[in-house]
Amino acid sequence: MAHAAKGEPLQTALIEWEELAGPDADVALSRARSAGVTAYRVFLTWYDVAPIERPADFDPENPAHPAYRWEAFDLKIRRLKAYGMEPIVSVNYPPLWAGGSGYSLTPDPGELGRFLRAAARRYSGDFGGLPRIRLWQMWNEANVDAFFSPQFDGETPVSPTLYRRLVNEGAAAVKSVHADNIVIAGGLSPFEVPTGYTRTMAPLRFMRELLCLSNSRPATPTCNERVAFDIWAIHPYTRGGPTHQADNPDDLSLGDIPDAQALLTAAARAGHIVTNQKPRLWVTEFSWDTVPDTRAVPLALQVRWVSEALYRMWKLGISLVTWLQLRDHPFPEGNNQAGLYFRGGPRIGCDPPKLTMSAFRFPFVAFKEKAGISVWGRTPAGRSGQVVVEQLTGKKWKRLASVRTDRFGIFSRVLKAKTRSGTYVQDESYTRRYRDLVVCDGASSYWRLGERSGEGAKDELGARLARYEAGASLGTAGALKSDKDPAVRLNGGKSRVALGGIFSPRTVELWIRTTERFGVIFSNRDANGQGTYIGTTGEGKVVVFDTFGFTGTKVVTDNRWHHVAYTYDGTTAAIYVDGVPDGAYTGGRVELGEPASLGFDATYGNSFTGLVDELAIYPHALAPPQIKLHFTASVKNLRVARSTRFAGSYLRARFPARKVASLPFSLARVPDRPVLPFG
Fold it and tell me: Which of 130, 154, 273, 404 has the least C-beta neighbours within 10 A?
């Protein structure tokens, strides 16, 4: 058995893109935790929290002053702590009265200090039951004039001097509350942009100016100014792979990290950094984009680069790496396609994982050397334990060694092994429940109608609360064989589910079980008969009135469960029964937003007797394949088949304690190639 090489930890983090503020916060945090994330970088946007106009009696150092608006940020911090994640708080964007316009002018250092003193007091661990924040980052990409300006006076750099004052005020503020609070500076954009609408100073030049160092090797002091921070942060995006160096000698990509380390070491040696510890280097933003952007990195190459980049950054002494995003942005509207998850729909739970997530969660590399095969890895979330290294041989994985990690979950070893080859297909299939399909196909409201007591019917999408009225019977066996969620029985007369105002829907989807003819299933019609009406005819078929009227062909009043959907795409209306088209009509309609109900129609006052379940309203017309899939998923959860084939010489690591394996890593060397660095 081999012992792991001694080294520093490797903590992995994510940047928040408002996923912690919405209804899917728990899903996002659960997925982040599954990806091995132990910290989250969140932005404390100063102008969102501070008053828009400064009151005459405003005390900016008092976190309890009523003019402050902390509530949304409080919620994020509570959620992070509930999931065991450390917040990295990056403050940015001043209010107008603090010397900025939100996006341009330089913030007043004194005002920032007063604001951060209030923030550090609020999140000191001793205020109103709120959790403590230890990690405070002073601004984001202060070398970009869109975030911090001015950058230059003519051609003379001025932003490093202005930023030094900002960092010193901020550091004094947060450390006055807790001396062991950690101050993070830097976080610079990696590439110089010398001209154009947005100017960016080259990051290594910014570092030298800030730290008062010469542009020489070795760097020497040029002034006696000092700046207070504990960690210097970088954003080392590349136009290539994990060892790629930037073309501009003052830019900072992965291959240039030693240059930043050299400046940090020189500044510390010159006494230009105020800290009670050895200054550390962190990565607080980094990624590679993948498909569907054709300029990005092929996914199979990206996952190799992710593991190798984490290894090389750790080897250089970087103990925290922050990935850009949990999920892709919508494409092509959004530039960033660097998520650990593909964008699968409007909600986070719709997103299928990329292989990127596996590489980020359990990075593992293997390289052929003269002495054998060198392997390195870090277990998910850095948990310590026993790791098994395996080699692909034929169609099986053969055990090569058992390695004990260090206390940070890091392991490394040089293995005496011959190169073998084989083929392996990794199953990445996942399931979709009926509920998943409704949510991911863009429903605006979705009532499962599964309550067993009470008067309120919960909208799964949080849009509106419906109300059970006049003796609706709850807790009856539901329509879905794949799900045990109950249904509601409507008993005729005034028995209904009152839904509130609904503008003419493009899709109404639900399940019914009834023997009643001339019954109303759904209606938002007004007293003049305008609006959408779905019901049953005297022959037991589905009928729709929506300015025009038409009927289906299949009988649905046979006391069996039937899936009913009505769609209107702006020209054509269609009825579907049990996943199959059942009637259509072409024409225009009058659209309105009137109170809607299940089981009641305002025009004639008629009602419905029978069971209803799983009502969904959509602002667009579902396509026939979507409706068919929904019906199919009512019987059994859908399995979405997906796999990746690996062929060649591969090793992988297994962590038996968590029943998880790394992705296979090829022993074949991969040449560098040009890629889009981000967005």
Answer: 154
pLDDT in tens, 152-202: 999 999 999 999 999 999 999 999 999 999 999 999 999 999 988 889 999
Evaluate the CA torsion angle 80, 82, 86, 92 in order and state its sign.
positive
- Strands of the sheet containing 520-523, edge to edge, are 456-457, 466-469, 496-503, 593-598, 520-523, 533-536, 541-546, 548-555
User: What's the whole-number average pLDDT of the chain?
Assistant: 95
The string of DSSP codes covering 515-564 is: --SS-EEEE---TTS-S-EEEE-TTSEEEEEESEEEEEEEE--SSS-EEE
Q: Which CATH number covers residue 44?
A: 3.20.20
Whether 136 and 125 have beta carbons less than 8 Å apart is answered as no
Assigned domain for 624 exists: yes
In a domain, 341, yes or no: no
Domain span holding position 517 = 434-638
pTM reported for the whole predicted model = 0.91
What whole-number distance in Å separates Cα of residue 622 and Cα of residue 509? 9
The pLDDT tens digits of the residues spanning 298-353 come to: 999 999 999 999 999 999 999 999 999 999 999 888 889 999 999 999 999 999 99
Rg (CA), the chain: 30
